[in-house]
Amino acid sequence: MMGYISMALVASLVVFTSSVVLADDIIPIPAEKSQVEPWFKANVKPLSARRGTLDPALEAAEASPRIITVNKKGGGDYKTINEAIKSIPTANKKRVIIKLAPGEYIEKVTIDVGRPFVTLLGQPGAQTNLTYHGTAAKYGTVESATLIVWAEYFMAANLNIRNTAPMPKPGTQGQALAMRINADKAAFYNCKFYGFQDTLCDDRGNHFFKNCYIEGTYDFIFGRGASLYLNTQLHAVGDGLRVITAHNRNDPNQQNGYSFVHCKVTGVGEGIYLGRAWMSHPKVVYAYTEMSSVVNPSGWQENRVRAHDKTVFYGEYMCTGPGSNKEKRVAHTQEIDNKEAKHFLTLGYIKGSKWLLPPPAF
């Protein structure tokens, strides 16, 4: 009998422990914006409060981080970001925090798949700019990005990432990416992305954006990512056709999509679309998001392939502002109830409880 009780107790403790580990994944982001930061601090705690619950490889990497300093004016370990990246050994297993002094770094940077656990860290409140002028005409669309990341467990904080190629004329193609994230488990805090067409290629993997700013003209957030954007401003510039998202989901079984929560949609002019069906099954949801009058009353661009009316997932949940009026929305805009909305409002959407950490101090 004692043995039976002990086994039952162990089993109950396992269940309890599992529920604690997974609790962060199921607690929804509050509807009240003033509660978002307390929610984040309660659910994305530092390593010291999460030992034994994170991915083992991540916990091992965070145990003794390496710090590299970069200052283009001298006085740091390196003068360029690329030099700092090259100093990281392939098959890296340790968190490497690259601290960037304020200034403009005119570089085209790629962090390859063999260098995971890299953090690019700017100084809070300072102007730390990573810029380049790559274009699709020279590099191909996705290779034109100023910053390309192939490595898992990437983090960036307090950076401005720009593609400085000129704005294409209305009606012409001019893809020029600021950022391409093509790896799982990446987080961006207080980062700004500037470009025009195809500013941010949010591709492949689970990603988190918090307190960010993304500017562009057409398809300025695109790709196959499973991404949660929190308290992020989406700002459309230029003339002519402007579309914020072009999510590249082409199968109903793919576990990906963009969730914008407590975000803000702004811009110049009017008639901006929240998204379009680049592929057959895009999934994009805006929740608790403030939409200015720049948003087209129809919300979403009409599908060029009519069959996509039945396969797209365009959702809006408890949004505000003049652009959030759904009276004239396209017919295939999803009606999301409270139960369904929770799926898009938790860290579970990006499996965040196993890998998401707050940014380090500078």
TrEMBL record:
Pathway: Glycan metabolism; pectin degradation; 2-dehydro-3-deoxy-D-gluconate from pectin: step 1/5
Gene3D superfamilies: Single-stranded right-handed beta-helix, Pectin lyase-like
Keyword Secreted in annotation: yes
Compartments it resides in: Secreted, Cell wall
Xref: InterPro entries: Pectin_lyas_fold, Pectin_lyase_fold/virulence, Pectinesterase_cat
The keyword Ion transport is assigned to this record: no
EC primary class: hydrolase
Sequence similarity: Belongs to the pectinesterase family.
Name assigned to this protein: pectinesterase
Organism of derivation: Cardamine amara subsp. amara
